[in-house]
Amino acid sequence: MIVxxxxxxxxxxxxxxxxxxxxxxxxxxxxxxxVSAPGKRTNDDIKVTDLLxxxxxxxxxxxxxxxxxxxVIERYADIAAELGLxxxxxxxxxxxxxxxxxxxxxxxALFMDNIKASGEDNNxxxxxxxxxxxxxxxxxxxxxxxxxxxxxxxxxFALPETYxxxxxxxxxxxxxxxxxxxxxxxxxxxxxxxxxxxxxxxSILASAVNAELYENFTDVDCVFSxxxxxxxxxxxxxxxxxxxxxxxxxAGFSVFHDEALMPVYKQGIPVNxxxxxxxxxxxTRIVPKRPAxxxxxxxxxxxxxxxxxxxxxxLMNREVGFGRRLLxxxxxxxxxxxxxxxGLDDISVIMRSHQLNDEIEARIMKRVKExxxxxxxxxxxxxxxxxxxxxxMRNNTGLAARAATAISNTGANIEMINQGSSEVxxxxxxxxxxxxxxxxxxxxxxxxxxxV
Length: 452
Hints:
Number of strands: 17
Strand content: 15-25%
């Protein structure tokens, strides 16, 4: 059995949905598909999810929602008409949206989740109806039938019973069409996953039915060794390990999000990134292990939007529990951290800037000075993380020196270096203004004359 996930651009309009049907029909093993909400039809188009966010905000503000509601319904109506479906499915979608708009608004985040999730949910209903209309027996299955998630306030994740609940889908004869992006708590509250939510759903389904393969269909032929918007014609990655993909996804590779790997990683199920518009292309396979051949570096990724909390105190290294107490202060502000490079008398905590504001920063600095008696405490902003990833790095001497030299040749200063104990990745913190220059320089250093 193969589980497939089709992203927003793959189901953006009727033409794309017809491609999806042909892909599923081409291999009888493709029995379960997870689908996103309709994405952009053109570069300047608006995704259905963004239209739904506007609709939810209007409802929360007590505004007139009719115009925004009709815009969403028209998107589905256009798709249904071109697919030759009658008005029944549009009435189902309309009734569903109106019911969601009448839901409790006292917890605004949950109301927003409920409206946003309708994009995937109603698209799954429409696609199942289309499959049936062309003689492909299909069944829409709601996450209510087994995708159980945790309660607030923690970020959304699937509970262990999810996998047993959904394992029964392996025995269904029809093609299962399952909406991505969300699940339900034990008390029936809808909660959405974070970014890449439909990828997570597809991965959960693949793990639950112990699939032979998880195919993730998007709008690119493969994963590239560097961002093709910055580097001209980067090397294509044909095969990559879970660990390598996890590191690259963390650092900005948006083709496949890092959290989506966990369910299939646990089961050892390979993932194949493929292109809906070019399904014959082999794509990129994500596997548990691969031979360490070719370049020691598999890919280079960059991600911006980081801040650094710098803390200095003489003889810090002699003070038992200093690091723990510092991180506890950050935890109590509900902030996660990324890296903690340190010296004898100083430590830096690197975190995502979107978690901060002036008030939070002032509170953290005040507490660190008062509770830890630190001598110098300050925040710095506008940093990027540059991550070099490769299973072959651990057996390659001088790689860090080559990378540091390439970076220094751009005129940028390296603010931080961090290498994990697995030696699969090497992270450099740099000012964001140098991010693209550094990516090009590192690509030239490690890929100019190699293939992966």
